[in-house]
User: Fold these one by one.
Assistant:
Number 1:
Amino acid sequence: MELSKKKKKSLTLESQLMYDLGTCSKSNDLSRALSLYDDAISNNLRLNHNHFNTLLYICSNSLTSSPNSTKASTIDKGFTIFDRMIAQGINPTEAAITAVARLAAAKGDGELAFELVKNMGKYKALPRLRTYGPALFAFCENLEAEKAYIVEEHMAEMKVGLEEAEVAALLRVSVETGRVDKVYAYLLKLRNCVGCVSDGTVKVLEDWFGSELAARAGVGAGAGALDLDRIRGAVVSNGVGGMGRAERLACVDIDNVETKAFAESVASLALKREAHSNFSQFQEWLKNHADYEAVVDGANVGLYQQNFADGGFSISQLNVVVKEIRQRCHGKWPLVVLHKKRYWSLMDDPSNRELLEEWSKQDVLYTTPNGSNDDWYWIYAAVKLKCLLVSNDEMRDHIFELLGRNFFLKWKERHQVHFIFCKGSLQLQMPPSYSVVMQESEKGSWHVPTADGCNDEASRTWLCISRPNSYQYPDENSMESIDPVVDSLHSSNQPSPSACGTETVIKENGSHGTTTSFQSFNYKPASKTGKRKERSPPHSSCHLQLL
């Protein structure tokens, strides 16, 4: 939006420049931004850190759209701007250093990009994940594996966590340089930091498991002790001990130590934001009422689909949810958290009193005090009691304040129950009977959920990688011989895959007889036909055979 002429006249030259640079940033107009910069310098206009930050951002951002013939001059201009910034005694921010690191990486200088990050301390700036990206990706792209590993070590020292793109890059450079010892470590890191993997990461996994080096190395022959315990526990709990060769996906929940830390973190944050005495009182109350198997976000349920003219808090909806949860919990009442102001408003209606009084008598209700945020109460109760949470609230505003995105999402997947009312009928969406994360079996098989844009878990595509000691080729008239691979994806409440997609078998040339099989398919109810997702065979010097 253009400023009015009157307002433009009131701007100082520095403010006018900032406004014009902001306009260039929005339109990615590098040429005009550099012209404005040159004019400012020739007129001895003193630039501040906002001017420099914006100019450096425009330079780095334009690299993706600039023709190759102008990239070198853009990079040089960006460094000239950065040098002037330092010469003027202006400490660059993390955003400025990230932009310059991208310029360095664009000319293939990962060393300089990393040096910029390492020197941030003298500018009193702290690196973020994006600050490390240019150096890390440059080293990985140039197959400089050892330098990439050093960047990762520095990230760990600065407590900057990896995400999928970074782990995938490290995995790829380890695969391409034959660093077998590192490949398995990054497979585990990938499993811990991401749920469903992108197509690019799937390609890296296929390239690795389809290689002769992977066949010789036998990567995936065994998981760490903790993961074996989890998988074995899942096998016992699912009662598959007598099913012979079949395996099942496991439920991967946070353990007791993580749960305790999580609850303490929630409590610490709540005590800072709530009246200390109020939340402490709730903690004491919960110690004496610790038998709940489910917690209900009362406001979220009662206000569901009530945004119409005559809509309001629906206690009938809440009652339906309470009854259904109680039935599923074998007669145990859930804990309903409701704001005290809401409670007294409902009590004003005589038709609600009998139900509310019954809930109070059964210790179903906990009313949060005036001025409090009831979110902290129901999330703390659900974590502390290790029980289910009935709410459609995705809790996005809590995620980054707690223990980190990946950790929080793992807890949500195993404990949150979503709900819908369809024509007045309640439908609860219980947590899946298996975790939607990369999983490794005791036999070395890997099951990888893909992020193929599908939000319906029943239709999600999984990449299945098995590494048996020997592989029985399936008879053309029967799929029975590959049942062990297919069965490994079944769980008691899990839909069966209706069909296998393209299966690629890579046989190692030699006497080892090692095989690797890939399967990609969509989960579908048995009565439906699932679409097949074709994948290209991994590039390998080994013999390929499509089944």
Number 2:
Amino acid sequence: MAAAATMTWHEELATLVGETGVRFPGAGGGSAANVAAAVGGGWYRGEEEDGEGRAVEEEGWAQQARGFLESTAEMLRVLGRGLWDIAAQSLAGAEDSELARRLRGPAAAAGKRLSFMNEYLPEDRDPVWCWVVVAAVAFVTLIVLGVGSVDDTPVELPKKLYIGPPSAKTIQLPDGRHLAYKEQGVTADRARFSLIAPHSFLSSRLAGIPGIKPSLLEEFGARLVTYDLPGFGESDPHPGRDLNSSAHDMLHLAGALGIVDKFWVVGYSAGSIHAWSALRHIPDRVAGAAMFAPMANPYDSKMTKEERRKTWERWSTKRKLMHILARRFPALLPLFYHRSFLSGKQGQPESWLSLSLGKKDKTSLESPMFNAFWEKDVAESVRQGDAQPFVEEAVLQVSDWGFSLSDIQMQKREDLSFFELIKSLFCQAEREWVGFLGPIHIWQGMDDRVVPPSVTEYVRRVVPGATVHKLLDEGHFSYFCFCDECHRQIFSTLFGIPQGPINPVPEPIEVASELTEETTVPDKAKEEEQDISDLA
């Protein structure tokens, strides 16, 4: 015990290390004492001898790191194999378990809905293995992007949207809902032309024709009526709405505002689907249509593969994703909406609506006038803070409309006898057209990347009566918004030479009635004198 108590820490370390086979130069052997002396002496240089007694230098940091990574990879590989074996043994015969029976149906349904994505995979590959690889690559990519996007530079926080107090005029529809509207231009009794404009996605009744001058409406005697779609602005929601109900909302609005004659419909961008609906469902009440970059259903069965390809290739990746979600997984849309325009903060239309813009559109959106309009219009659009109306509108754009654009104007089908049918083969007689036969004007910017020109080419093919005005170098916003000269050209095309408002016939005044009575008094006196003379 006394000997143990007198051991230094060098000797204790030597007893723990034992004989390792490491030889230190000048140590005079490989005993534990020499090891302790070497360590305690502070001259250990990390060298060891090979079989012939030559000193071998220690490995560098690069070699050590490489060895560590190789060892880690080997351990992970062995661990993965072990986990795989455990999972395989645990799942053996799991097909007959209660959990598997319950999940089999939903899994099959989900697989069926996702089967369309297998079209993008190589034909000679297993879809399950391919999607596992795609998921892994996507996960790694997101991590890399998240790490690489870290930026310490200060970023200006977006401003909050200001939503003012309610101020809209409303009408009550037959089903009890209230529809908010706005009027511009001349009054109803002086209107030579009446126009109704449903707004586009993420917009409101405040949009109308952005920047149109009241003097221009007065000059042409025009009355412009805009309204909030159900759930937008100050209009009540309408769950389960479709384009047929949208057309009849427009019809009831016209009746409530005293529009007796036919009215024009103005359709801009996504708002054009409601204008198309009016031409289809209430053609007898519509005088004509003015369409600006009108939208068509990108899944319309009448659209050729080439037309569909030209349309989809001009859209951004995010917008394609939003269309796919709206058609197949609409329940996921609120997640995106609440992170963008329903966040209560201001933002730019190209980011919120996933738009790709041309040069002229970017210039238009940078103007202070457009920014002030955009902020006010979006704030009114999201007044109710509910994502459901936006989801319904997005679904309407890509789902079955209940009609095709080719149904708006079509040739009348006639039941011909056998001989008349043979005769028609040799004599091409003109057949009668049915549907909406009024004028349809379409303005299309050739640099529009929101609604590409290929959409208008498709519309022109299926609606042969439409007149297309191609606008070189114009985009989606540059011609329709805040362009006085453009607005004058539009109204001149639609209505011809401006004739001003209608002057209502003045009602008879009291002075005129008094003069009439005075002129009739002498006649009565003469009659009385004549009666007296007859009695005499």
Number 3:
Amino acid sequence: MGFRVWLVGFCFWVCFLFCGSVNSKGLGLEEDGFVRGRVLIDGKSAIGGIDEDFVCATLDWWPPEKCDYGTCSWGRASLLNLDLGNNVLLNAVKEFKPLKLRLGGTLQDKIIYETEDHQQSCVYLSRNTTELFGYSQGCLSAKRWDELNEFFKKGGVKVIFGLNALNGRQIALDGSAVGAWDHTNAESFVRYTVRKNYTIHGWELGNELSGNGVGTRVTAEQYASDTIALQNMVQSIYKDIEYKPLIISPGGFFDENWFKEFIDKTTQSLDVVTHHIYNLGPGVDEHLVERILDPSYLDGMADTFYKLHEILRNSPTSAKAWVGEAGGAYNSGHNLVTNAFVFSFWYLDQLGMSAAYDTKTYCRQTLIGGNYGLLNTTTFEPNPDYYSALLWHRLMGRNVLSTSFNGTKKIRAYAHCSKQSRGFTLLLLNLDSNTTVHAAISYNRTRPRRLHHKHRSYNHKPKVIRIPRPHGIEGEAFREEYHLTAKDGNLHSQTMLLNGKILSVNSSGNIPSLEPQYVNSSEPIMVAPFSIVFIHMPNIVLPACR
């Protein structure tokens, strides 16, 4: 009986919004800064699936001397000099329980590893414009690797380590890297790692050497051969260990022909195919914000996700797609854009879009460092995208639902089955500067089922904001909303508000709790101009989420 009451009320609400008002204020028509719209969710079956720990971040090798366009934004954020004792850093990582961290970047292919078999002087990366990538060869000391792993253990990190793929190769006159990969030093490093009982989630080979490459390039045929060599090496070293790390490659920009050949030649050797995304252009570009807020520009990345998905679908490989590095704007990003509130529109749209094409993990450049870090390079304070990432991680479950929005092109909509209930979570991004959207939800080709229970318990204790916390009032359903806005409405602000309250760490360096506001599910969803809303519907169970 309760479900029937709810269903009648739901149908009345939908009809009232979209049928009764069609003559005067139809779907998508604006009046006094408002527009009505409809989210359409096909809950019959999932269109994709993501890893439980889909959200991933990177740590890079760049030294303080790394400067772009006259700005030096890296400070002490390198794997070699990052302050691992910073309390905010540790707390920020712990909140994800666990966070995947990909260790790598351009200079990983200039790094050698200090081990028992390689004990020559361990020198620091130094600027040298005559060298490839503008830096001399550097070294990861055994002591620093031990320190990093101690931090990873404390933070509950899943480590993906990018190995130097240029060892043993020569740079030809045409700029390509020729010859086979010399994995002698890498093998010694992996053996040391195993002897120390350090858990590695995945070993990745090389950085941005696919296709035309960055700085240099390796053919798909040679890279496939080297990846097979990596797999053989790892299998040999881990033969007596139950847990086997993933074999990951190539960690470069998507080139359709190159990737197809590479995947076809590694069908038995590869677990994860990684590609990188910097689709907004250079960090110095003056049109970054314009592109971030342009739905048509954002849609442009769908072609890459689709093509890689199709290559994998049509191949006998069992490898899965990851975004191994994505900073949006290359050459360290742009201060007060890629580390400010406005970038959450790009970032969350990327998470939603990539997931819809069955991308399993998405690694953000960076956790800290450059102008695109989730954390401030100097203070370690979370930038807005940190909170966006954390909310995604907590709310968006593994099953991806087909989702669309009718009413305005300025709303981006994504939905997943929820992590914390049998319901679903909807993400809405409003790219419009002036229009508030009133959104209702319709379900395509399936009838949702409402859960009946008097009390709901979660790992956190939500604080009531808009209405008293519901206590299972029969015949009523409530949803949880997380509204993200910029301080003072300034898109370039590095301060984010959740339901009108500033998010910031306390004096002990603790990450603030992210509390929802409760709203009666019969009310339309209100999405303010230039705002982001996560909507958790715990009581609506779709077939894809059962």
